[in-house]
Specification:
three-stranded antiparallel β-sheet; 141 residues; 29% strand; 7 strands; 4 helices; alpha+beta; four-stranded antiparallel β-sheet; single chain
Length: 141
């Protein structure tokens, strides 16, 4: 049985068409970042209590902003999405996704007020994705 499983795994590996990552890739397009953001979807945001406030972090998404054209979110199922400034992507840099000194990476809310967050992203190819997070799933002590 083990040999059959090994052979089947080998055949699947040969016939699959994985995304090929090049060590020199700058990850600046939707095609390049979609596999990453899809795989890390549960970690797109984080919520932390700090200094008497709830802090909503967008660090994960902003780290791949060069392949995004828009990031918007709502807290506690608000009807209106708020746009977040994703910052500039300087493709002339060795790492275009590096944060500028003035890049905002978090929003501050009253302590205990964030119960859920819905995030919508638009890739630079105009495809979209979204995710709704419960506080307990993204809370960082």
């Amino acid at each position: 049985m083990l040999n059959y499983t090994k052979r089947l795994s080998f055949i699947v590996a040969l016939t699959a068409t994985p995304f090929v990552a090049n060590a020199q890739m700058k990850f600046t397009t939707a095609e390049q970042i979609k596999p990453i953001l899809t795989a890390t979807k549960a970690s797109w945001i984080a919520v932390r209590e700090y200094g008497g406030s709830d802090i909503l972090y967008f660090t994960q998404l902003l780290s791949w902003r060069c392949g995004l054209s828009r990031l918007s979110y709502s807290v506690n199922d608000e009807n209106i999405l708020k746009d977040w400034d994703i910052g500039h992507c300087d493709e002339d840099l060795p790492n275009p996704n590096v944060f500028a000194e003035d890049q905002e990476i978090y929003a501050t809310y009253p302590l205990g007020s964030i119960q859920s967050v819905t995030v919508h992203i638009t890739y630079d190819d105009e495809t979209t994705d979204q995710m709704r997070f419960e506080r307990k799933a993204v809370f960082t002590p």
